[in-house]
Write a structure and sequence with these properties.
Elements (H helix, E strand, L loop, with lengths): L2 H4 L2 H7 E7 L4 H15 L4 E6 L14 E5 L15 H10 L20 H18 L23 E6 L13 H13 L14 E10 L9 E8 L11 E4 L5 H10 L7 E6 L15 E2 H8 L9 H9 L4 H11 L4 H7 L7 H7 L7 H7 L6 E4 L10 E7 L2 E3 L5 E3 L1 H8 L7 E7 L12 E4 L6 H14 L7 E7 L9 H7 L13 E6 L9 H7 L1 H9 L3 E7 L3 H17 L3 H13 L3 E6 L1
Parallel strand pairs: 1-2, 1-3, 15-16, 15-18, 16-17, 18-19
Antiparallel strand pairs: 4-8, 5-6, 5-14, 6-11, 7-10, 7-14, 8-9, 12-13
Length: 599
């Protein structure tokens, strides 16, 4: 970059605002671009919004004002594009000598107003502080808003339409797995919201078993799925996670395409505007059908759109009353009403577009603003050594009703449950390390897995049973929980087999299997109650160096189980609850207390 292009370096430093984001599912991109748009509306002369992937850390000292927008995924994991998340990043920057221009803002996507509930007031403070710190960043003052800057930028996406013949792959790959793999990789490489590591499927699986584990009418719909690898051999360890790209309803995809007046048979490629091929797009891959792109990349009938979706919609609404309502939804004043309309009802993109029929959004904007079709992660419930080239999952089919009695269901779980093993449906998957590392056979284990939290521990037990055939293994104790023994006692025969006749869960091996059936008696009984009943045995195992593994719902279970362990340590060792709490925390820091929880 020459001096002529940027003026003087001092001028560039004084008037440039750099916004760096690290995103896994697109939320941080949305938030970063919202901060960037607002900065330009407030008159900031120069704003850049970049992924941390596109910025070299060595250039950071050259930048005077930088805003980081970073996300966490799942249970606080860092996104693929960076190792630090907000609190650690904040501390690290301060340690390196950076000056915090404003207290870090912490947005929560589960907040009643979404992350915007924290972002809006944080930005209001930001403009005031930036102006006080450096008036050149906001030369017109902190309250100035450019009335002509409502729709600042062109869409990020550039759509290139191709002749039909260009979309036809060579005969050698026109059918089979290679073609399917190329379709998935090509479509998912066309949007920055999909992490680069999630473009090409690691392999494809074919479902061979779909078995319902819970009784019909029990209020639970839990399935056991078995898959064979069909594209390559697979490797995984117990405690690993399988990420699945779900299929979408063909009817919903067709309805979206029709509502948006798109041609499903047209062949397209999509790349970032103004970046040419610098984003790593492989131009040697063939174009894809528009319908295929929507099916594999745009979540049109499951995810709810973000607030910016409504703002952009307002510019393409021909009916005045629709435009006014969309503008209100997009404003800070309308945030709570938008939450009631959108997030609380979990309205889908398709439903929102149908509610505003005068809106005709260009496909470029739809590609940018429709939430990407995300992979879903499930704990693997098998041991690879026991089932070579197979993967097993234990999945609860999620359904619920919105406040206005709309029936909703989890996209991936419902899709998996609908699959017929007799049909040749191929599932694109990725293997990933989970939060539960595989234990050596010499390590005593205390396992807690109510409901589908039992999934990873089915693999643990399978593996230890194989290990025990050659050499004696350490004790293993497992606490399972469900509502009713007769309705949702998942894998009952499996646990019974391994808890009897010298099995790895048997008491004569120093372990045990204990089940809590919460609704089989007037008084609720949960896993934490069963844990306390085995206080002496648990303290003995902990004293032998046992590791604790917990998996299941992130609601109250992990904290209730933690409290039970604190009570046991306190009672058995004669220390205060406060000392017991520190003892458990030390266990966690030492890598002996693991939790994998999901909402």
């Amino acid at each position: 970059m020459t001096q002529k292009q940027i003026g003087t370096m001092d001028e560039k430093l004084n008037t440039h605002l750099l916004i760096l984001y690290a995103s896994e599912t697109g939320n941080a991109i949305d938030a970063a671009e919202q901060v960037g748009r607002e900065a330009e509306r407030h008159g900031c002369p120069s704003v850049s919004v970049l992924s941390v992937d596109e910025f070299h850390p060595s250039d950071l000292p050259k930048k005077e004002t930088v805003i980081f927008v970073v996300s966490t995924t799942g249970q606080g994991d860092a996104p693929d594009s960076m190792k630090f998340v907000a609190k650690k990043l904040d501390k690290r920057l301060l340690d390196l000598g950076a000056l915090a221009i404003i207290e870090r803002g912490l947005g929560d996507d589960q907040h009643p107003s979404g992350y915007e509930g924290a972002l809006d007031p944080w930005m209001s403070s930001l403009w005031n502080i930036l102006y006080q710190m450096n008036p050149k960043l906001l030369p017109n003052g902190p309250v100035f808003v450019n009335p002509d800057a409502a729709l600042i930028d062109r869409p990020r996406a550039q759509i290139i339409y191709h002749d039909t013949n260009e979309g036809v792959p060579p005969v050698s790959i026109a059918t089979g797995l290679k073609y399917l793999e190329m379709q998935v990789e090509r479509t998912r490489s066309m949007t920055p919201a999909v992490p680069s590591g999630k473009n090409r499927p690691e392999c494809f699986l074919k479902m061979t078993k779909n078995l319902r584990l819970s009784r019909e009418g029990s209020g639970k719909d839990v399935h056991h799925f078995e898959f064979d690898a069909v594209s390559s051999s697979i490797e995984y360890e117990v405690g690993d996670v399988l990420e699945i790209l779900p299929g979408q309803s063909s009817a919903a995809v067709d309805a979206f395409i029709q509502r948006c007046n798109l041609n499903p048979e047209s062949y397209i490629t999509i790349q970032p505007r103004d970046k040419g091929n610098k984003a790593g797009i492989n131009t040697s891959l063939f174009p894809v059908k528009l319908k295929t792109f929507v099916e594999l990349n745009m979540d049109v009938a499951s995810a709810s759109p973000r607030r910016y979706f409504f703002e952009v919609m307002s510019f393409f609404a021909s009916a005045e009353h629709e435009r006014e309502r969309l503008q209100y939804f997009a404003s800070p004043e309308g945030r709570d009403d938008l939450y009631q309309y959108n997030q609380k009802e979990r309205r889908t993109v398709l439903e929102v577009l149908e509610d505003f029929p005068s809106v005709q959004m260009p496909f470029e904007w739809l590609v940018q603003l429709v939430p990407p079709l995300k992979t879903r992660a499930f704990s693997i419930s098998s041991c690879h050594s026991a089932h070579p080239n197979q993967v097993h999952l234990t999945v609860s089919v999620v359904t619920w009703k919105t406040p206005y009695k709309r029936k909703r269901s989890g996209l991936c779980s419902s899709w998996l449950a609908s699959l017929d093993p007799q049909q040749n449906v191929l599932v694109a998957v990725w293997f990933k390390k989970g939060s539960l590392p595989p234990p050596p056979p010499s390590l005593p284990l205390i396992l807690i897995g109510p409901g589908t939290g039992c999934a990873p521990f089915r693999g643990f037990v399978e593996e230890r049973a194989l290990q025990n055939e050659s050499d004696p293994t350490a004790p293993m104790i497992f606490f399972f929980g469900c509502r009713n023994k007769d309705n949702d006692f998942l894998y009952q025969d499996f646990w019974m087999k391994h808890s009897q006749n010298g099995g790895v869960l048997s008491e004569d091996k120093g372990g045990g299997f204990y089940a809590a059936f919460s609704r089989d008696q007037p008084q609720k009984v949960y896993v934490q109650h069963k844990i306390k009943e085995q206080s002496t045995k648990i303290w003995s195992l902990l004293s032998q160096g046992a590791s604790v593994y917990i998996a299941g719902s992130s609601n109250k279970m992990p904290s209730d189980v933690l409290s039970a362990f604190e009570d046991i340590v306190s009672a058995e060792s004669g220390v205060s609850k406060e000392v017991a709490s520190r003892w458990i925390r030390a266990l966690e820091k030492a890598g002996k207390y693991y939790v994998e929880a999901w909402s």
